[in-house]
Amino acid sequence: MAKLWGGRFEAATDKDAFEFNASIGFDKRLIEEDIEGSLAHAKMLVRTGIISAEDGDLIINGLNDIFKDLKDGKIAIGDEYEDVHSFVESVLTERIGDAGKRLHTGRSRNDQVALDMKLYTRKAVSKLDQSLRVLQEALFNLMKDNLDTFMPGFTHLQKAQSVTVAHHLGAYFEMFIRDRERLNGVEERISYCPLGAGALAGTTYPLDREWVAEELGFKCGPTRNSMDSVSDRDYLIELLGALAIIMMHLSRFSEEIILWNSNDYGFVELSDRYSTGSSIMPQKKNPDIAELVRGKTGRVYGALMGLLTVFKGIPLAYDKDMQEDKEGVFDAVDTCLSSVKLFAGMLSTMRFNNEVMEKSARAGFTNATDAADYLVKKGVPFRDAHGIIGRLVLYCISEGKALDDLSLDEWHRESPVFEDDIYEAISLKTCVEKRVTMGAPGRASMEKCLGYYAEYLGINK
Ligand code: ARG
After folding, report:
1. For this structure, is 278 an active site residue?
2. Predicted model pTM
3. Per residue in 190-207, is it b (16+ CB within 10 Å) or e — as a string?
4. Dist. CA 147–CA 337, nearest whole Å
5. Are 111 and 197 in contact (CB under 8 A)?
6. 86 in contact with ligand 1, CB cutoff 6 A
């Protein structure tokens, strides 16, 4: 067991205790960040004269070689080390001797791991943001092609008023705008560098924390309080919060796609490439990807609840409980990233059954509000108009008709105000096209929206 400590110990660590305590099994994922941080630290130690230039060169070349050898598969990170930090220092020291032992001067694993997690978060945020952008592009293209594709809009999962596919998808486009903003907010708040905070109380070495912060791309400079620096994992909780909301959005979308793709709805058909079959029922083609995204949302929520709970009672500054931040965060980032990526592919290969959706939009009295509005425009108070149309709907149900099928005589059963222009006023086309206030599904307002989205994505419409 290669350890970074041991001087004050008389007995070796119990084997099970070592394994229980070790984080190497999962923090080996931080190897790149760990080496990046160590390189900056070593360069700073040389600049400030804390270590010699010769030792600095040995360390920097040694670290670069370790990284290269790992990449080339010449060495592997074994489980005999306590954590990724121990691995790097041990291998470095094996290779370059005493200089390797000087790398940790003025540093603790507490500020080191805080830095690693911030560097990891920064990369994760950028990958997630990019994948959401790709998903938005897929949505944008679908919206452009479906400005006039009618479908029913629902409230309470009951047909409510008609919309278009572009309008419905636009709701998700908006959610993903907010998701990206939330991710960028996380990135804003990790722009302070914790390295140099030491174990908890800084150090007496004349570290140049400003230089390290700049070297590592932390635009706000070093963190201001060393105790907070090593004990802060707010950004991971925020990240998980942002991921949980992304997954919630994908899960709602999945739920809709599963419904739309079901035999009885038939609004869409998922591509074979994103569906799976049954081992017993030959006819089945199941929306497993959407179901899995919906299901995996639970894992991400779990990671968020887990970390909030880990942190609720730990005293300042660093406590080993904090090591529990990693697995949940790594898993949630992986889960969210693969869900977003798959979603873009699933959406852009999905076929919309336009006729089925339009037929569904025509049924279910989605134009009842428009019929009431027709009366209002002719001077009838809205509440009375609501009652009149309600009674006509009841009549239609008993006759098995749509409002559009009523004869003028039938309209007149409830009010003499109806004239020939009622048919035009409640046609599906009118109901959608006349809704052109900002945010509504009519073509005119949707085109404005698409113009905005094109600008947002930085693409030509
Ligand atoms: N594996 C630890 C973690 O993930 C690294 C920091 C260890 N610090 C310590 N003082 N034991 O949090």
Report:
1. yes
2. 0.95
3. bebbbbbbbbbebbebeb
4. 29
5. yes
6. no
Q: Is 156 a catalytic residue?
A: yes
Q: Which atom of ligand 1 is nearest to the CA of 82?
A: 1
Residue 16 Cα, ligand 1 centroid: separation in angstroms? 18
Domains, the chain, ordered by start: 15-105 (1.10.275.10), 110-358 (1.20.200.10), 360-457 (1.10.40.30)
Atom index in ligand 1 nearest the CA of residue 318 equals 10
Locate 159 and state its tokens: 């047909």
Pocket probe mutation, ligand 1, options 88, 200, 230, 320, max atoms within 8 Å of Cβ: 320
Residues in CB range of 364: below 8 A, 6 or more apart: 152, 158, 159
Alpha-carbon distance 6 to 19, whole Å?
16
The C-alpha atoms of residue 106 and residue 127 are separated, in whole angstroms, by 32
Residue with tokens 């804390």: 50
Render pLDDT for 260-288 as a digit per residue (tens, 0 to 9): 999 999 999 999 899 998 888 888 889 99
Q: Is the CB of 247 under 6 A from ligand 1?
A: no
If you average pLDDT over every residue of the chain, what do you get?
96
Residues 26-62: tens digit of each pLDDT: 999 999 999 999 999 999 999 999 999 999 999 999 9
